[in-house]
Specification:
With about 160 residues, the protein is mainly α. It has one domain. Helix content is about 75%, strand content about 0%. It is built from five helices and no strands. α4 packs antiparallel against α5. The two termini are about 35 Å apart. This is DUF2269 domain-containing protein.
Length: about 160
């Protein structure tokens, strides 16, 4: 048997140890997503003078950004459903969820296709599009981080 501290349930069923494990995975994937996105922003600016950088960005988009994005989404949902915060109980959690879903969809269908075009040499407007996507993504992830820290706005009507 575990101690009372390890068997006590947090919110809707996660023990403290399990909750902390999911929280660690969420923070690592979210911070990683933010960091890679800032790196992509730097590469997008540099790629105007060195278009071969789009190939590196394409690899990052496919092999790093998308897995981190999906990981941040899944771990965030698990945490929200397994803790007192809930997915729709608090406005800040709901806003983070919506922004993350929008970011994952945009990353999957827009950013990656622009990176593939640019890496294949079809730069055209792709360079500006990739730069804009990196700027928007960086701001969005910074907002999500701020929401996690400040937890504004109180409960929703479902809370």
């Amino acid at each position: 048997m575990g101690t009372a501290a390890t068997t006590a349930r947090a919110g809707n069923g996660l023990t403290p140890k399990v909750r902390k494990t999911w929280l660690l995975l969420h923070v690592v994937s979210s911070v990683g997503w933010l960091g890679v996105t800032i790196g992509m922003l730097v590469l997008a600016v540099a790629a105007f003078d060195a278009p071969q950088l789009y190939q590196a960005m394409e690899l990052l988009g496919d092999l790093v950004v998308l897995p981190l994005a999906l990981s941040a989404l899944v771990t965030g949902v698990v945490l929200s459903l397994g803790t007192r915060w809930g997915l729709v109980k608090h406005r800040w959690v709901l806003v983070k969820f919506v922004l993350t879903v929008v970011a994952v969809v945009a990353t999957t269908f827009s950013l990656r296709s622009g990176l593939h075009e640019a890496a294949d040499g079809v730069v055209g407007t792709a360079g500006g599009d990739v730069l804009a996507a990196a700027c928007v993504s960086s701001v969005l992830y910074a907002v999500n981080t701020a929401l996690s820290v400040f937890k504004p706005w109180g409960r929703t009507r479902w809370g």
